[in-house]
């Protein structure tokens, strides 16, 4: 659906996006993660042909350039702020871009905007404006939707509503590129992770693979905790313990299982230590900083 | 392009100022009628009760907000990525405001005809010969047609300024300065008596086009250009401002 190849974006001769390459398949929900100033919004704007760039961007095999946006006909986006005209009602704001009244009405219902959709948008709250901006991005059954911080200003119910809407559209084949600072929320919907820092792509993986790779520790419990401790110390396997649990690094778990079996000690429980996305991202960024410092 | 045009027309027809403007124009024309006096019937009819000046004022406000509302409402990004090219957005805005310009002049003609039926001025037949040995009705139509050209120059300047400056108030202020102070700046330049042959082609001088059309003797002395020369200059500057505005818009970072 979306192909980004070796894309560089310069703003006032300063490189903001550096040699980024990735693809998004139909139906994927890609979470674009990175610290402030990493280049997330610039990358999104670049995909929408709003900045000068080098490299190749294609939407459904059609090229996007700064001067030719024809390939973006079936793309919806919410970038930075919702594009709302205060002198129009919510409905009129939708009518401005909408090609299908039924589709428009469906979105109004799905986002529960019926009560105020005929009021002038100048009286809308932050959350109402945000929902309207999201509805504009979802208009006309797009093949690709780009959302920059979509959950800004939304209450819990609205957040759940938007999440369900994203999942429904993805199930129908719409691809998503979503950036959000609320990683816990992003984690609930995304199927793929893209992590960028200083304009460079650091991680581009399916969420499942990302979780497996970055779950460093495993926690286990055995039938003989005292003997297990002695064995780990004797074999110099690094561990921490919160009795009756032991925690070891992921790469040691196969050797550990062999070791325990030879001593007729049996596992009662073995599971990866759940890291949330935030912790994982912070760890990766810290490792990257460390590596950069060393080099 | 069709979609961009539809969007621009949709926005224009939902703006309150757009529909209030004809009423404001009527009020201002009535005031002008009173100010000009009962016996200035021919001048009032030929100039549409000075509608050109009032239309200029309205267009400065409407034109200046055409671009700035996009920046202020954060709509420019959506507008740009949804349009096939930046040129479509720029052209659609230009065409729509030009259409509104023509509409306002049509309204001004209508108001003039209606006001002539009132006791505001001494009754004179529309077939009465007045400027350029032509009947009054022809004078009025030609004044309005010439003014469409003058106001298009101002619109092109407003668009150029709007692409340079995001702030609506600044664009309106600078545009009003150009419209209402421009001719004084130009006449001051030309009274210096040096380089008049070149200086008379300055863009400020072109704002005299309509006034010179209906008051040739007085304004020729100020502009040092004939009607046809002013018309040519106005068209050339309009083209220059529109192209420059687009080039700036194309390069602008959003």
Automatic annotation (TrEMBL), chain A:
It holds the Pfam family ABC_tran. InterPro entries: AAA+_ATPase, ABC_transporter-like_ATP-bd, P-loop_NTPase. Residues 2-223 form the ABC transporter domain. One of its GO terms (molecular function) is ATP binding. SMART domains: AAA (SM00382). Keywords: ATP-binding, Nucleotide-binding, Transport. Gene3D superfamilies: P-loop containing nucleotide triphosphate hydrolases (3.40.50.300). Belongs to the ABC transporter superfamily. PANTHER family: ABC TRANSPORTER, ATP-BINDING PROTEIN. This is ABC superfamily ATP binding cassette transporter, ABC protein. It comes from Levilactobacillus acidifarinae DSM 19394 = JCM 15949.
From TrEMBL, chain B:
The chain crosses the membrane at residues 16-34, 54-81, 140-162, 169-190, 230-249. It comes from the Bacteria. Keywords: Membrane, Transmembrane, Transmembrane helix. This is ABC superfamily ATP binding cassette transporter, membrane protein. It comes from Levilactobacillus acidifarinae DSM 19394 = JCM 15949. The lineage of its organism: Bacteria, Bacillati, Bacillota, Bacilli, Lactobacillales.
């Amino acid at each position: 659906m979306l192909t980004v190849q070796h894309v560089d974006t310069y703003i006032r001769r300063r490189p903001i996006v550096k040699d980024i390459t990735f693809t998004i398949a139909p139906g994927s929900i890609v979470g674009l993660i990175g610290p402030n100033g990493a280049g997330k919004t610039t990358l999104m704007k670049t995909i929408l042909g709003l900045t000068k760039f080098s490299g190749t961007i294609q939407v459904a095999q059609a090229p996007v350039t700064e001067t030719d946006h024809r390939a973006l006909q079936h793309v919806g986006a919410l970038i930075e702020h919702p594009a709302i005209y205060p002198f129009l009602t919510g409905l009129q704001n939708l009518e401005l871009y909408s090609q299908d009244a039924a589709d428009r009405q469906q979105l109004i219902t799905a986002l529960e905007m019926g009560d105020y959709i005929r009021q002038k948008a100048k009286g809308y709250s932050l959350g109402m404006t945000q929902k309207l901006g999201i509805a504009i991005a979802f208009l006309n059954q797009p093949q690709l939707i780009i959302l920059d911080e979509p959950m800004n200003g939304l209450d819990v119910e609205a957040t759940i509503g938007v999440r369900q809407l994203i999942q429904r559209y993805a199930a129908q084949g719409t691809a998503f590129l979503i950036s959000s600072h609320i990683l816990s929320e992003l984690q609930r919907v995304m199927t793929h992770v893209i992590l960028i820092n200083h304009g460079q792509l650091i991680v581009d993986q399916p969420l499942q693979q990302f979780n497996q790779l970055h779950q460093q520790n495993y926690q286990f419990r055995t039938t003989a905790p005292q003997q297990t401790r002695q064995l780990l110390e004797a074999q110099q396997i690094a561990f921490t313990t919160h009795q009756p649990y032991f925690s070891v690094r992921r790469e040691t778990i196969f050797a550990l299982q062999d070791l325990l079996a030879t001593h007729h000690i049996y596992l009662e429980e073995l599971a990866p230590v759940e890291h949330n996305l935030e912790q994982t991202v912070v760890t990766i960024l810290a490792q990257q900083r460390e590596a950069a410092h060393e080099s | 392009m069709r979609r961009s045009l539809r969007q621009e027309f949709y926005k224009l027809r939902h703006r309150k100022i757009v529909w209030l403007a004809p009423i404001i124009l009527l009020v201002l024309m009535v005031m002008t009628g009173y100010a000009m006096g009962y016996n200035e019937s021919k001048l009032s009819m030929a100039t549409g009760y000075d509608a050109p000046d009032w239309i200029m004022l309205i267009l400065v406000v409407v034109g200046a907000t055409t671009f700035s509302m996009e920046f202020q409402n954060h709509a420019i990004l959506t507008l740009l990525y949804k349009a096939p090219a930046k040129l479509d957005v720029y052209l659609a805005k230009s065409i729509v405001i030009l259409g509104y310009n023509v509409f306002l002049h049509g309204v001004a003609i209508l108001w003039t005809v209606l006001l002539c039926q009132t006791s505001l001025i001494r009754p004179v037949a529309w077939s009465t010969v007045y400027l350029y040995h032509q009947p009054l009705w022809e004078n009025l139509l030609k004044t309005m047609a010439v003014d469409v050209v003058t106001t298009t120059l101002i619109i092109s300047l407003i668009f150029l300024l709007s692409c340079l400056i995001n702030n609506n108030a600044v664009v309106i202020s600078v545009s009003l300065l150009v419209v209402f102070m421009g001719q004084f700046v130009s006449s001051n330049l030309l009274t210096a008596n040096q380089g008049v042959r070149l200086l008379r082609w300055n863009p400020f001088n072109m704002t005299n086009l309509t006034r010179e059309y209906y008051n040739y003797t007085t304004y020729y002395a100020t502009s040092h250009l004939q009607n046809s020369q002013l018309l040519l200059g106005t068209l050339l500057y309009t083209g220059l401002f529109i192209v420059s505005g687009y080039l700036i818009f194309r390069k602008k970072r959003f």
